[in-house]
Amino acid sequence: MPAALLLALFFVGPAVWALYSSLTNLALVGIDAANPRFVGLDNYTRLFADPDFWTVIRNSVTFVVGSAVIGQFGLGLALALLIDHAEHRRWWLGTLAYGAVLLAWVNPTLIAGFLWVAMFDFFFGSLNHVFLSSFGLGPVDWIGSFPMPAVIVANIWRGTAFTMIIFLGALKTIPPDIYEAARMDGANAWRRFWDHTLPSLRPIAALALLSITMSTFGTFIVIQTLTNGGPGTATEVIALFAFHTAFKSFSIGYGSAIAVVMLALNFAFAVAYLRWSRARA
Amino acid sequence: MTTRAASQVARTATAPRGASWIETLAAHIVFVLVVVFFLVPFVWLFTSAFDADAVAYIRLPAQPTLNNFVRIFTEHDFARAMANSVLVAGSTMVLDVVAVSLAGYSLSRLDWRFKSSITYAVLLLQTMPLSATMVPIYGLARALGLRNSYAGLILIHAAIELPFLIWLMKNFFDNVPRYLEEAAWLDGRSKLRALVEVVLPVARNGIGVVAGLSFLAAWAEVLMMIILIDSQDLKTVPLAFYETLRTQGGYVEVQYGLVAAMGVLYALPVMALFLVTRRMMVRGLVASSRGL
Predict the structure, then answer these.
(1) Which residues on chain A are in Cβ contact (under 8 Å) with B282?
(2) First to last CA, chain B
């Protein structure tokens, strides 16, 4: 099977390679590049004692909560409800909004990063030069002063469509007679929403949340183009940390240890995700 | 499909009565804000690409020009980058379609001992973010001599999209009735011939989605390109774009017009294909749960 071969080579292979090299002091340059030595768990003890690692974990959690849980999930749910409503009312602006959100998502991630570099630009970015100045406000150094909110906004822009589509699909599967019955019972719109719409969305919501948490946890390109982890380590999330360690400090062994930690965390999320989706099926 | 359509009809029939003007106004204000937030960056991209001296803020080009596009081809060898990208994405697509048809079919139909655990493993692999495998894939590609080669780019891009494409294709095969290929077997065709001649034509929508998504994914992907390629000759579209952006920032003023022109050519195929095959692609991408 060609598929099995490719999978074995480029998924199982890297996992084994990562586990092995994370136990060595393999480097890209210097003496260790030629003769990597087996160093046991040194990379891991070093990693867990590294204050940078804990900063990076804190940044990753902030980024995931801000961009995935609050941003993409909250905004995605709100947009799905609004657009679903607009479909019933036949408001064409709802369709346009749907298309706009979708466009930001299918667009290559690298472009998303670049577009927001320009939007946030201190001297001439659209946010300062067009938006703020039209209110007579002075420029704000978005990336310098608010690096984390800036990358979060860019990632919300890029990724909201996924949750929105998932919820739009789920809303269409709610049988309409439920609402009709509730309306007969005299339930107002808010009650109908709270008692019927939200509970029917709960199972799919858990899956959507787990899945965007996983992909947001691995975010790399958007942050790299916008801030490259900076200023200082303000937006250095775990994927950038692995990249910088392996390719800027040339410590492949240490970088592999970070990759193994990432894979392990992701694995835990993935198992939870699959358990949940099987329980539903 | 029919139940969906039926519930759609029923919902329209029981749709709430006319909206109050406050509700209409509030909803439309929100929609306008949403449209502005999501579209403004694109407006900037397209206006800058046609602006001879583009700037970081939005403005209509005083004299719309194709000069930026001419310059990326004459000064930045963008034609080579595009040819490389088409080659890599096209080969990835062919490889993936073959591999995915076989793997999806066997997961859908054949009974073998470890099928359920393999299905589970495929699902599990699908959720791994690329950035987590970046360091090990770099190390492995270096050890196997696959860096700076078309073969490495194609094999690795084909592989990273496989898990979710297999899963997608398995679902398409699950919907093809079994009696079709059973009839073909009775006619004396082999399993492989029955798959190619009978099952695949029925599942051609699935093949189309797999082909489209694997091409787009390999066209748009940049992380693997960054770690696998240093050679100028193998530079692809995203790498050209990335380099122009990176090398200019800091030393020279960013030439927004040039970068935006590259960006337009980079993003346009993706957007165009999506507009044409929107519904299917969206379903496929949602199944992938990660996007491009």
Answers:
(1) 102, 165
(2) 27
Nearest chain A residue (CA) to B138: A14
Distances in whole angstroms, Cα of residue A87 to Cα of each of A50, A98, B200: 52, 11, 36
Q: Compare CB distances from A18 to B129, B135, B271 and report the shortest one's residue.
A: B135
Residue at token pair 């001992």: B113
> Between chains, do A239 and B45 touch, taking CB under 8 Å as contact?
no
Residue A47 included in any domain: no
Residues 121-180 of A with CB under 8 A from B: 121, 123-126, 128-130, 157, 159, 161-162, 165-166, 169, 172-173, 175-177, 179-180
In a domain, A209, yes or no: yes
Looking at the complex, report in whole angstroms how far the Cα of residue B184 sits from the nearest Cα belonging to chain A: 23
Domain formed by B77-288, architecture: Orthogonal Bundle (1.10)
Asked if B222 and A109 come within 8 Å (Cβ–Cβ), the reply is yes
DSSP B187-224: TT--HHHHIIIIIHHHTHHHHHHHHHHHHHHHHH--HH
Q: Examine the pLDDT at B15 and tell me if it is beyond 50.
A: no
Report the mean per-residue pLDDT for chain B.
81
Chain B residue with CA closest to A22: the answer is B136
CATH (domain of A219): 1.10.3720.10
Q: What is the pLDDT of residue A160?
A: 92
User: What separation in angstroms does the CA of A176 have from each of A172, A173, B12, B264, B281?
Assistant: 9, 9, 9, 43, 28
Q: What is the dihedral of CA A117, A118, A122, A123, to 10 degrees?
A: 150
Q: Which range marks the domain in which residue A92 is found?
A: 59-236
Question: How many angstroms away from the CA of B180 is the closest CA of chain A?
Answer: 23
What tens digit of pLDDT does each residue of B147-157 get? 888 998 998 88
**Residue A250 maps to a domain:** no
CB contact under 8 A, A119 and B19: no
Distance from CA of A3 to the nearest CA of B (A): 5
Q: What pLDDT shows up at residue A29?
A: 57
Reduced to 3 states (helix: H, G, I; strand: E, B; else coil), residue B17 is coil
Is A39 inside a domain boundary? no
The pTM assigned to this predicted structure is 0.84
CB pairs under 8 A between A and B: 281
Total domains in chain A come to 1
In the structure, what pLDDT confidence band is assigned to residue B2 with cuts at 50, 70 and 90? very low
Residue A70's identity, in one-letter code, is I
**Could you tell me how many residues make up chain A?**
281
